[in-house]
Each structure stands twice: as structure tokens, then as C-alpha cells.
Design brief:
38% helix; Aspartate Aminotransferase, domain 1; 16 helices; alpha/beta; 2 domains; 456 residues; PyrdxlP-dep_Trfase_major; transferase; BioA; binds 4'-deoxy-4'-aminopyridoxal-5'-phosphate; 7-stranded mixed beta sheet; Aspartate Aminotransferase, domain 2; 4-stranded mixed beta sheet
């Protein structure tokens, strides 16, 4: 039993915890929900209230909370060893997991470099691509192409390849400059294209122009395949990732796929790139890798990339990068248990009816006068709320419509976290159809309650 009552916990939080991506003055005014337990798709607070976890523990959860098989795998591992190091040693779980990841990854990705969060997984990919060209005798290839609205994490390297001004603008003077390419956002096309069947074409033309102009100095391109997550769950048109792959090949640019949010089944395939038949040169994984249990990340690379780092000690081809908790055996044991569950529970095979159900509900929601756009890719969706559906005028951010809808959702027993005016749908992949109904009913009711037909 918890020795602390809810009030004390809230007070400790208010007094001592500085929350991420949070305006703390506002936070301090509220009494936060204190989560103490989880059960399947539900979070349970210190007063015993249950909330359907509509964002899957910030996009990490796969099999539900407190999943027996993963709990057991972690307990077993704790009794064997908690941590050693990959500096001068290996461990059984890290080795077995690397083999498993290579087995399920897009063909050709055959090496696994471990770290412990999504930002570092991407940053490692960026450093790898940079050093790769140094070793290839192409020292001028030092730049990166990134996309508008991209989000790759919060460390300096990951922010450098990000494209969300609200998050990244303040740090600009600290960052290395990148070449920013337009990204398809069919609902708000920056080229004014209204025919959605043509979405992505102008972006690709512009990307090709940038590559042609800068190929000699570009080391790599970083992309969130299929869905730009934190940018607003913006879904790319079919064929976009494949076209980007072809352009990278044509211009001698390494493709770094950031599958931190979309990896491990989220888009309906194990990895998003597989839906386009694409193998990136480098692929960053985290979030779902341990099904939301423990911090772990992996940056996978092709033999071609790896070979550039092979040499005698004095050749200075070593990849000088590594974190203390790299390859942690408890996290790797959790990841192995999660991958075993993908198979034993036929998780990927179970997704199509759920994906179809979400799609059906979104088609109803789009009729709401303040729902401007709905977009979905597998088990992730975004519902964009607008003040004026005709003109697509957004609600002013000060009105905090997304936040208000999510607050209302709590009263319906659902936890959501918006991205500005976009309501994010990101439930655990294991959610049942009944739970998805509860989730979509709650979102619909919350939008109705917060936004009156005349506006906010
Ligand atoms: N890349 C993507 C696509 C992400 O969505 C995120 C996190 N939301 C990250 C990288 C960063 O991961 P982390 O928060 O674990 O550093």
C-alpha cells in the first residue's frame, strides 16, 4: 500500500518536480492525477480512478500495462544480473536481442548499436552518417537534410535536425544548421495544392532540387517515415518514403529513418519502412522497443555503413560513442519478452479490424463543424480542430482548445495528450475493440462538450 495520500503526493510534485514540455506556473495551479498502477489499457490513480491510456504511455506501450509475461522476464533478469557493460564485455540478452532485431528489421539492416532513448538513437545515426563519409574520403559531406515539422528528440543533435519552431526556435543559436526540406502536410499544403492525390509531389521536387544543389556536402537525410509524430501526426502520402529512398540513392545521401515513434507495430507493420518496401541505411528505434517498460534504444545500420568503421586501431575508425546503460540486460530482457508476445499473441495480425474501427469513427468525426481534418496511419491518428472549417483557420493557441478537450476527456475516464489543436489517438496496440469504442466515444463527447457549434 502507498504510505502517501493523494494530497501529499500532489504537494511533493508541485514543490519538487519540474515537468517536461510544461509551463510550470500553470501546472502549479492544478492538482495533477497521480498514477500509481496500470492494468491492461488502463492507468489507475492514487484514488483508484481508472483512465484509458489514449497515448500509450507517451507512445511507448504495446501490450498494455503490467503485462504478466514482461513482468516475469524482468523479474527473472533482475535475479541474474542488473547491469554490466558493453565496453569490453557483452551480455546474453543484448546479443540475443540484436539477433532478433536483425531478423525482423527491413532486410539489410544487420548491425545494432544500443543506447537508451529516442533522441540519442537519432543522434547516433547522425554521427554515424557524418563519420561514415569522413572514412570514405569525402570530408566535405558534413550536412544533413531534415524536414519541416520534424521532431527527432531533445538533445542538441536531435534538435538540430528538428523542424518545429515552437520547440526548437529558442535553441537555434546552439544548433548546427541543416538544409530544411518541405514535408507533405496535405491539409495545409505550403504549395497551395488542393488535390490530395498530388500530395507530396511538390515536396519531392523541392527535395530533389535541394539534393542536386547540395549533394557534395550532404551526409544524410533524416526522416520520420509515414507519420511525422510530434509535428501533429501528419501522415505522408503513399509512396513518399520510397521516393525519398530513391532520391537518397541517386544523390549518394544516407537515409536515416527515425522509427522511434512508429516502430514496433504502430503503423500496422512491424516497421513503417516495411510498408513501403524500403531499407534505410540507418534506422533509429526506441519507445516501443521494450513495450514501454524500460529506457532502451537501438540504432541499426547496414553492412555498408558498418564496414566504413572497420579498421586497425591506429586507423582511427572507431565509433567513439557510448552510454553507461548501453545494452542494459534488464531492458533487453523486456524487449525480448515483448517481441515474443508479438508472435504468441499474433499482435500484428490482430490489428486490421482495430485500424478499421478507428477509421470508421474518424469518418463520423470529420462531420463535426470544428473537426477540420482527420488523419490515420495504422494505430495512430490525429484529429485537427479548427475554428473555421471553410477557411481552415486554426483556433488561436491561447484558447488551448486541445488541452481543454483532453482535460474534459479525463472526466470521461480517458487520458489524452494533445499536440496543439490536434487530438492524438495512440492507444496500446493490445487495446480491445470495446476499449477503442470507449476511447473514440470519449473523444467525441469531449470535443462536443468543449467546442460549441459556434466555435470555442
Ligand atoms: N523521434 C521521434 C519520432 C519521437 O517521436 C521522439 C519522442 N517523441 C523522439 C525521437 C525522442 O525520443 P526520446 O523522447 O526517447 O528521446
Amino acid at each position: 500500500m502507498n504510505r502517501y495520500d493523494t494530497k501529499t503526493l500532489q504537494e511533493y510534485d508541485r514543490n519538487y518536480v519540474w515537468h517536461p514540455f510544461t509551463q510550470m506556473k500553470e501546472w502549479e495551479r492544478d492538482a495533477p492525477v497521480v498514477i500509481v498502477r496500470g492494468e491492461g489499457s488502463y492507468l489507475i490513480d492514487s484514488d483508484g480512478n481508472r483512465y484509458l491510456d489514449g497515448v500509450a504511455a507517451i507512445w511507448t506501450n504495446v501490450h498494455g500495462h503490467c503485462k504478466k509475461e514482461i513482468n516475469e522476464a524482468i523479474k527473472t533478469q533482475v535475479d541474474l544480473i542488473e547491469h554490466s557493460t558493453l565496453l569490453g564485455l557483452t551480455n546474453d540478452k543484448a546479443a540475443i536481442l540484436a539477433k532478433r532485431l536483425v531478423d525482423i528489421a527491413p532486410p539489410g539492416l544487420c548491425k545494432v548499436f544500443y543506447s537508451d532513448n529516442g533522441s540519442t538513437a537519432v543522434e547516433i545515426g547522425v554521427k554515424m552518417a557524418f563519420q561514415y563519409w569522413q572514412h570514405q574520403g569525402r570530408p566535405r559531406k558534413t550536412k544533413f537534410i531534415s524536414f519541416k515539422n520534424a521532431y527527432h528528440g531533445d538533445t542538441i543533435g536531435a534538435v538540430s535536425v528538428g523542424g518545429i519552431d515552437l520547440f526548437h526556435g529558442v535553441f537555434r543559436p546552439l544548433l548546427f544548421p541543416t538544409i530544411q526540406a518541405p514535408a507533405p502536410y496535405c491539409y495545409r499544403c505550403e504549395f497551395g495544392e488542393s488535390d490530395s492525390s498530388r500530395c507530396g509531389r511538390r515536396c519531392l521536387q523541392e527535395l530533389e532540387r535541394l539534393m542536386t544543389a547540395h549533394a557534395d556536402e550532404v551526409a544524410g537525410l533524416v526522416i520520420e517515415p509515414l507519420v511525422q509524430g510530434a509535428g501533429g501526426m501528419i501522415v505522408q502520402p503513399d509512396g513518399f518514403v520510397r521516393a525519398v529512398r530513391e532520391l537518397c540513392d541517386r544523390h549518394g545521401i544516407l537515409m536515416i529513418a527515425d522509427e522511434v515513434a512508429v516502430g514496433f507495430g504502430r503503423t500496422g507493420a512491424m516497421f513503417a519502412c516495411q510498408r513501403e518496401g524500403v531499407t534505410p541505411d540507418i534506422m533509429a528505434l526506441s519507445k516501443g522497443i521494450t513495450a514501454g517498460y524500460l529506457p532502451l534504444a537501438a540504432t541499426m545500420a547496414t553492412q555498408e555503413v558498418y564496414n566504413a568503421f572497420l579498421g586497425e586501431y591506429r586507423e582511427m575508425k572507431t565509433f567513439f560513442h557510448g552510454h553507461t546503460f548501453t545494452g542494459n540486460p534488464i531492458a533487453c530482457a523486456a524487449a525480448l519478452a515483448s517481441l515474443a508476445l508479438f508472435e504468441s499473441e499474433g499482435l500484428l495480425e490482430s490489428l486490421p479490424p482495430k485500424i478499421g474501427y478507428i477509421a470508421d469513427r474518424l469518418q463520423v468525426m470529420i462531420e463535426h463543424p470544428s473537426v477540420g481534418n482527420v488523419r490515420q496511419c495504422g494505430m495512430v491518428a490525429g484529429i485537427e480542430l479548427v475554428r473555421n472549417k471553410e477557411t481552415k483557420e486554426p483556433f488561436p493557441w491561447e484558447e488551448r482548445v486541445g488541452v481543454r478537450v483532453c482535460r474534459e476527456a479525463l472526466r470521461h475516464g480517458i487520458f489524452l495528450r494533445p499536440l496543439g489543436n490536434i487530438i492524438v489517438v495512440f492507444p496500446p496496440l493490445s487495446s480491445s475493440l470495446e476499449e477503442l469504442k470507449f476511447l473514440m466515444d470519449g473523444i467525441e463527447a469531449s470535443i462536443e462538450a468543449v467546442i460549441l457549434p459556434s466555435g470555442a
